[in-house]
């Protein structure tokens, strides 16, 4: 769909303008090529198999052979009170049919024949017009001393130069009628383009609506299918979870049974260990008591033996002490007796 300000719309509009301008220039150049301008040089021949195209930047150089028109002598000039023409419109308004048809280019048929254009062709109709009063200029040149052929050559040269200048202007500029015609065609094409764009937009809108409805139906179908798939997946997941839960419960029961068996084994082994510990403890206690008893007996025996030894030592010491006392007494007795003997 082409929007009014989109690049595609602008490119299409430029293409339509270029196409109309090319058609206009082609028709204009074809008109000038079909009716070439006469040359002011009567002795230069023209080849029948060559045609020159009009270009705005090149001067017109279309050689033709011009022959004077065999017509009756013109009537004497009538006094006219009209003002002198100063513009192209004044020249055209001052020119009369008799004056414009007094001298016409009539080349020999074997060398050049001027083609006739339809009356509907605007540019051909303008080309056939004269830009000034040719008869008056011809009479003025004759009055100045020019011969009839020289006056005709000068008049035709001026007419050719004017046609060349106006042809260049006509190539560069555009007539108001052509502008209105082109404007009308452009507006018609623009309205047609607008209608086509509206139709295309309407068709595109309908197509987009159809595609949107199709996409909506597809989305609804996909949503329904997705919900069904989600429900099936949920059921599958629930079933798998239940199966897994049952398997887990069975595995848990098996693990609990194994743990119970291990606990029973541990309890039995612990009882056996406790019994063995009690037996070892009682055995250790009995062995300890026996050791203590043996140790006590040994200690008592040793004490008794030591007591007897101590008593024996004490007795021996007392006996020796008594012996020493007796010896001391005897020595004291003997010393006293000796002293007495000395005294006495």
TrEMBL record:
Subcellular location field: Membrane; Mitochondrion
Matches recorded under Gene3D superfamilies: 1.20.5.340
Gene Ontology CC terms, in alphabetical order: membrane; mitochondrion
Coarse class of the protein's main subcellular location: membrane
Keyword Translocase carried by entry: no
InterPro entries in the cross-refs: CCDC90-like
Annotated keywords: Coiled coil, Membrane, Mitochondrion, Transmembrane, Transmembrane helix
Ranges of Polar residues composition bias in the record: 86-103
Span list, region Disordered: 31-109
Recorded superkingdom: Eukaryota
Record keyword Transmembrane present: yes
Pfam families given in the database record: CCDC90-like
Start-end of Pro residues biased regions: 70-80
PANTHER family in the record: MOZ PROTEIN REPRESENTS A CHROMATIN-ASSOCIATED ACETYLTRANSFERASE, PROTEIN FMP32, MITOCHONDRIAL
Record's protein name: DUF1640-domain-containing protein
């Amino acid at each position: 769909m082409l929007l009014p300000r989109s690049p595609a719309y602008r490119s299409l509009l430029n293409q339509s303008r270029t196409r109309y301008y090319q058609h206009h220039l082609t028709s204009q150049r074809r008109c000038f090529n079909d009716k070439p301008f006469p040359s002011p040089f009567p002795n230069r021949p023209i080849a029948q198999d060559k045609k020159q195209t009009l270009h705005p930047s090149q001067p017109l150089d279309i050689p033709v052979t011009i022959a004077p028109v065999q017509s009756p002598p013109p009537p004497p000039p009538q006094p006219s009170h009209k003002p002198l023409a100063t513009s192209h419109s004044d020249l055209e308004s001052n020119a009369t049919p008799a004056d414009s048809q007094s001298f016409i280019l009539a080349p020999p048929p074997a060398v050049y024949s001027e083609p006739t254009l339809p009356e509907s062709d605007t540019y051909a109709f303008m080309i056939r017009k004269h830009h000034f009063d040719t008869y008056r200029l011809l009479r003025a040149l004759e009055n100045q001393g020019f011969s009839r052929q020289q006056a005709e050559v000068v008049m035709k040269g001026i007419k050719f130069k004017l046609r060349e200048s106006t042809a260049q202007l006509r190539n560069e500029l555009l007539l108001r009628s052509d502008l209105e015609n082109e404007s009308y065609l452009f507006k018609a094409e623009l309205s047609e383009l607008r209608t086509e764009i509206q139709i295309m937009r309407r068709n595109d809108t309908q197509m987009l609506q159809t595609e949107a409805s199709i996409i909506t139906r597809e989305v609804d179908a996909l949503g329904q299918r997705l919900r069904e798939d989600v429900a099936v997946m949920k059921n599958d997941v629930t079933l798998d979870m239940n199966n897994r839960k049952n398997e887990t419960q069975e595995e848990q029961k098996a693990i609990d049974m194994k743990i119970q068996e291990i606990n029973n084994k541990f309890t039995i082994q612990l009882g056996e260990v406790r019994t063995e510990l009690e037996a070892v403890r009682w055995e250790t206690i009995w062995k300890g008591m026996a050791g203590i008893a043996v140790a006590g007996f040994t200690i008592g025996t040793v004490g008794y033996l030591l007591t007897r030894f101590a008593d024996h030592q004490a007795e021996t010491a007392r006996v020796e002490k008594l012996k020493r006392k007796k010896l001391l007494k005897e020595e004291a007795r003997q010393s006293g007796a000796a002293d007495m003997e000395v005294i006495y």
